[in-house]
User: Which sequence fits this backbone?
């Protein structure tokens, strides 16, 4: 039933209307003569408070509010990939066509193209008993992504009719399923309310690393497929670059990138860059596996609040097909601020720093929609959603509520550090503060594929870095000169690790992505240096001689050696290293132990 | 857009509080609508509806509420949103914070009437800014390159020469190899007469005035007007950029005063305050200004913004610079330490950033070695700065020879690269040459962030050759 009410108050994005009896919480409504899109966020008697996803200037008390009977929903079906949407899933290119450069309000455009037809191949046959998640057919959405058309949640029964192979639009009925009570018509598209998580059979443990091609992340603070990560950092510490790097290079099948309350020019950058970039695994343009949701900071604040839900619902949809999806939300702080702004207009009792008291539970709800799952359906597919949320703490102060509440949920913490960023050490992930709780789970993967010494080597490297920070304090008091040679060596090695391994130039054609195999080899070289240097030192070579070894310069450039030639070059560097160490060792050719390990 | 139905006048002002009035017994008033308030003296002021209810409206009064009463004062709702008359004739004009002429000229004859709040630019319609703007300032061009369509604020402190720097950049800025139509929009919010005069004089002396529109809301002008001054300026900027195909540089100073005005209104509305009493929506509000920079696909013009703000107590974590930094594409930070050392411009490059520089530099844009030289300079100067504090404790003898080279580098970097004359601009080639001559103070093996090929091509052969 369609309800109609009357506006009694307008203040910014919040509108109050009366005679709204029959409306439901979170129901979508059309506000005013211009039919602005809004959502009911509070009901009291017949008075509804509505947050409006479009600019409300010019709206008057007395104008109508019409209920739609639906919750805020997204359209799910073929055609999502490669599209750029606003926070409530309106395709921005269509808005551009309809209203030009500036987004006028009250525009309604379909989220998915109704005209386009897709080549459908049936999988199920008439007479099959099917339930939610069972595959009815397939559509090749891109060259590499086969879009599974599944029985939507809530539909169950016997297939009485299935469309033969051919081209269909997303509104054509491709199957009829007879249930207990009625016959359901299934199209390739269906709607799903964004605030409700899509059902699955079972949650699984995330065990496979999500390879990002970023050394500091993969080697030290690894993310798992189906995991959750938080990236907090003050402005200028490179949150967005980290997020974009991940969007480009993670080995997920589908990327959902939510630009939530961020800069318009950055979204323009993504739009310019992604179509030209190749997915290193498939050779396809990156844009073809990406869904972009852009609600920039100057777009209406309520839609910003909705944008992360729109994103995660789309992610769940592809997860249900059995894909590994990675969702980047940049930035969850802007989403939290949108909550705060709306909450302030509702005059709710504020919690910490003016945020509503339900901030923590909302954050938890959102991150809980990540995970690796066994999907519905008899096939028993497994799919995953990895969520990487950027956090923008005011003043870079991690004690603020959004950061703290996020850290209680997220399993991986990449702490971005203004100091490192000022020194142009990127990614500015602080190696002492950051952590990953997936280290144990993913080490198996590395041990199987690379070598059983992976964990030992990274622990050794981290040990050196930690020792460095302790020594730094002493150096600040007495200077580096008085340190014993062994400690000087620690400082030197830490510098080498920082400069040649942790530092990674996102804008360098080669360095922007580093394969796991190459990361492992680089670590081996660093480890070899460590062994040989310690050996030389015990043999009495003296620190200065090690410090002056020319091989350091080759090591500093390891990161820039392309993936197809690094094998040979890294071998040469190891040769060079052995050779140079053997010359400074008073005992003649040294480092024999090191070589024994190698061969 | 706005249906105008109520042109009626009310004299039912029930409450006057701070910059706000509450009007009772009204009908059909729209949110955001403009109202004209007539004082007992007959004077007229403009206002805007902040909250519209069935029979009540909260109106903020531009020009302040002094001399308003709850008896005779009347208010007329115009049925229209806040609009500005825009015309090409505006160039060369000096207007006040509400776009009324301050110079001898007549009011602007409108070509078009534009809504001053603008509309959000569709991110899909944006063109990515890539055209390098040569400002002639080494720390900007070499280290934090500005491109057309960027918003790059200057974070300063009270008493630092941010005005000089902004004036110098305005004077020197050019795009390599192009002579195109440009305009400068200057919006002052709450600055002193003296500061205002400094800019007006500088624009006059350099002949830039003819291509400039000046909006002046000075320190003794109504605080509330500061809320609309930058919006007027940006509306004018959009007019020149996207209707008249010009490249527009917008200078907004001082954003700190703007934010104070925002806080004042929030407080008088008894809103729940966010950090340090600033309203929770300050991020959104600032974004509605800063995001009005950029380029549009298929349009020639561009809007480049250079907002200036003074950080209270030089604190970069204060909400004003903090929220600004989260929205703008980088920042230029001035340092009191460098200023004390007598360095002009006192730009502390370490906390500076230009997010869009990667697209605007390198081969075919500035020079192929620029990206590498930039990161190398940063790494080297950061190390030198760290050593500067160490030297204070242990003395130079306590340092290794490499460390001493870094120390010498950072010293000369401040004196030769950062320091430059107020009247002299440097070309990008000069900036990069200076950079290479400084980098040659370091052993070649230390230049780890520069490709070997580029080192071979650009590094001066012997150390100090250029300085001999």
Assistant:
């Amino acid at each position: 039933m369609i309800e109609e009410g009357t506006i009694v108050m307008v203040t910014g994005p919040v509108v109050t209307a009366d005679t709204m009896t029959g409306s439901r919480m979170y129901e979508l409504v059309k506000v005013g003569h211009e039919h602005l899109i809004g959502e009911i966020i509070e009901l009291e008697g017949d008075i509804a408070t509505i947050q409006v996803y479009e600019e409300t200037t010019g709206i008057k008390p007395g104008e109508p509010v019409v209920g739609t009977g639906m919750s805020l929903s997204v359209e799910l079906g073929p055609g999502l990939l490669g599209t750029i949407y606003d926070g409530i899933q309106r395709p921005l290119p269509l808005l551009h066509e309809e209203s030009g450069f500036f987004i006028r309000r009250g525009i309604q455009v379909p989220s998915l193209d109704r005209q386009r037809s897709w080549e459908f191949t049936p999988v199920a046959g008439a007479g099959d008993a099917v339930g939610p998640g069972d595959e009815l057919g397939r559509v090749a959405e891109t060259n590499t992504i086969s879009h599974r058309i599944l029985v939507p949640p809530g539909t169950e029964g016997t297939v009485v009719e299935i469309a033969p192979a051919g081209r269909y639009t997303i509104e054509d009925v491709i199957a009829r399923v007879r249930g207990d009570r009625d016959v359901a018509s299934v199209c390739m598209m269906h709607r799903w309310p964004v605030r409700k998580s899509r059902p699955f059979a079972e949650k699984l443990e995330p065990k496979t690393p999500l390879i990002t091609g970023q050394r500091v992340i993969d080697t030290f603070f690894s993310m798992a497929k189906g995991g959750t990560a938080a990236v907090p950092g003050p402005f200028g510490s490179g949150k967005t670059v980290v997020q974009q790097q991940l969007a480009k290079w993670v080995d997920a099948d589908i990327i959902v990138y939510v630009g939530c309350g961020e800069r318009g020019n950055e979204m323009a950058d993504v739009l310019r860059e992604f179509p030209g970039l190749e997915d290193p695994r498939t050779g396809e343009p990156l844009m073809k596996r990406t869904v972009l949701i852009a609600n920039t900071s100057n777009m209406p604040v309520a839609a910003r609040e909705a944008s992360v839900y729109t994103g995660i619902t789309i992610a769940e949809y592809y997860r249900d097909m059995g894909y590994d999806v990675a969702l980047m939300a940049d930035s969850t702080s802007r989403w939290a601020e949108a909550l705060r702004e709306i909450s302030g207009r509702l005059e709710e009792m504020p919690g910490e720093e003016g945020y509503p008291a339900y901030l923590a539970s909302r954050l938890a709800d959102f991150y809980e929609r990540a995970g690796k799952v066994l999907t519905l359906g008899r096939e028993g597919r497994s799919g995953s959603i990895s969520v990487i949320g950027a956090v923008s703490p005011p003043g870079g102060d991690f004690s603020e509520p959004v950061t703290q509440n996020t850290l209680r949920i997220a399993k991986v913490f990449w702490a971005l550090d203004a100091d490192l960023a000022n020194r142009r050490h990127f990614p500015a992930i602080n190696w002492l503060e950051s952590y990953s709780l997936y280290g144990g789970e993913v080490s198996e993967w590395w041990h199987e594929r690379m070598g059983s010494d992976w964990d030992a080597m990274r622990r050794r490297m981290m040990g050196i870095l930690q020792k460095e920070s302790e020594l730094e304090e002493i150096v600040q008091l007495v200077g580096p000169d008085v340190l014993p040679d062994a400690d000087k060596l620690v400082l030197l090695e830490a510098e080498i690790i920082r400069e040649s391994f942790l530092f990674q130039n996102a804008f360098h054609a080669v360095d922007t992505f580093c394969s796991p195999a190459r990361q492992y080899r680089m670590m081996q070289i660093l480890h070899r240096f460590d062994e040989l240097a310690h050996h030389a030192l015990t043999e009495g070579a003296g620190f200065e001689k090690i410090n002056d070894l020319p091989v350091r310069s080759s090591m500093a450039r390891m990161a820039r050696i392309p993936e197809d030639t690094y094998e040979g070059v890294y071998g040469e560097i190891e040769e060079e290293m052995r050779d140079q160490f053997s010359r400074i060792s008073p005992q003649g050719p040294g480092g024999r132990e090191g070589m024994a390990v190698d061969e | 857009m706005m249906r105008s139905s109520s042109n009626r006048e009310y004299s039912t002002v029930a409450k006057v509080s701070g910059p706000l009035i509450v009007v009772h017994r009204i009908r059909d008033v729209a949110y955001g609508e403009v109202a004209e308030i007539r004082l007992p003296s007959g004077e007229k002021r403009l206002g805007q509806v902040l909250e519209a209810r069935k029979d009540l409206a909260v109106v903020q009064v531009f020009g302040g509420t002094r001399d308003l009463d709850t008896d005779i004062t009347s208010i007329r709702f115009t049925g229209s949103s806040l609009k500005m008359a825009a015309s090409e004739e505006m160039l060369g004009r000096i207007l006040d914070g509400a776009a009324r002429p301050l110079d001898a000229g007549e009011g602007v004859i409108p070509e078009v009437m534009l809504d001053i709040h603008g509309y959000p630019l569709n991110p899909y319609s944006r063109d990515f800014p890539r055209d390098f703007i040569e400002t002639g300032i080494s720390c900007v061009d070499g280290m934090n390159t500005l491109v057309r369509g960027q918003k790059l604020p200057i974070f300063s402190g009270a008493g630092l020469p941010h005005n000089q720097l902004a004036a110098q950049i305005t004077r020197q800025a050019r795009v390599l190899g192009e002579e195109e139509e440009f305009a400068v929009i200057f919006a002052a919010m709450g600055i002193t007469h003296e500061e205002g005069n400094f800019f007006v004089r500088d624009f006059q002396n350099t002949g830039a005035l003819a291509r400039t529109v000046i909006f002046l809301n000075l320190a003794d002008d109504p605080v509330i007007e500061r809320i609309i001054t930058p919006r007027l300026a940006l509306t004018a900027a959009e007019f020149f950029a996207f209707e008249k195909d010009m490249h527009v540089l917008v200078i907004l100073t001082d954003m700190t005063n703007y934010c104070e005005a925002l806080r004042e209104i929030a407080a008088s509305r008894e809103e729940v305050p966010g950090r340090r009493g600033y309203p929770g929506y300050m991020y959104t509000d600032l974004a509605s200004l800063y995001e009005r920079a950029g380029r549009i696909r298929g349009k020639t013009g561009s809007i480049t913004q250079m907002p200036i703000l003074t950080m209270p107590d030089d604190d970069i974590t204060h909400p004003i610079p903090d929220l600004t930094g989260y929205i703008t594409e980088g920042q230029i930070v001035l340092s009191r330490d460098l200023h004390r050392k007598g360095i002009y411009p006192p730009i502390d490059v370490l906390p500076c950033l230009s997010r869009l520089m990667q697209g605007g530099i390198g081969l075919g844009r500035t020079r192929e070695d620029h990206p590498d030289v930039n990161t190398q300079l940063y790494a080297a100067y950061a190390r030198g700065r760290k050593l500067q504090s160490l030297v204070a404790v242990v003395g130079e003898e306590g340092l290794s020879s490499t460390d001493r080279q870094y120390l010498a580098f950072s010293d000369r970097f401040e004196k030769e690269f950062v320091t430059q004359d107020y009247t002299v601009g440097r070309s990008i080639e000069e900036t990069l040459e200076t950079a290479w001559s400084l980098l040659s103070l370091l052993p070649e093996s230390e230049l780890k962030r520069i490709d070997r090929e580029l080192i071979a091509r650009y590094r001066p052969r012997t150390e100090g050759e250029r300085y001999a």
About this structure: Residues 370-394 of chain B form the longest helix (25 residues).
